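User: Run a structure prediction on this.
Assistant: Running it now.
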Amino acid sequence: MTDKIKTHRDGASLAITIDRADKANAISKAMVLKLKAIFLSCANDEELRVVTLTGAGKRTFCGGADLSQLTEMTGNPEEAVWEEIADALSQVPALTIAKINGACIGGGLSLALGCDIRVAVSDAVFGYPALRNGIFPSTQDCLRLRELIGPGRMSSILMGASRLSAKQAAEWGLVEHVVDRNGLEPTVSTLSEAALSAPRHNLTTMKNLTRGRRN
């Protein structure tokens, strides 16, 4: 059984894969810490321009946190770790793209929200069953959801436990591109071109502008 995070570096691009397909790419405690370390290391990588994040297999981007390891979240150190990982991803000084190749649930949606662009296959589904599972979303997740889809739709997802199709997610503004499965890689490649050729300062300045941050 695989239970890990894979990375592949190709020039100025870093591909990250959640590699636990037999468990719906659910994220264990060890995987959370690994992802956090990867995101933090990106801050000091002067050559990095693009980071992509996806899940292994063809059914699930990420099914969220492994609930068998996260039974009591309120006041638990793991809750702080999820806050930290969301913040670390949002601060990566490169273009970040979520390649959503399947179901994107809970912690999976948290990771997608932390990226600059979300590209989803047409049969992907989205949900954040935090209330049902007794897990609170990170502050970063709430801010991003509110920015992207507004408070009413945010409440529908977090309190109404709504599940969205890829089409509805795009209509709500939760994802930017919906493609067939064969179009996932080409679309991500096209979206990466400008960032890959940009000077680091220009890219980070542009990212800060899109995030509403000061340089």
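Confidence is low (pLDDT under 50) at residues 71-75.
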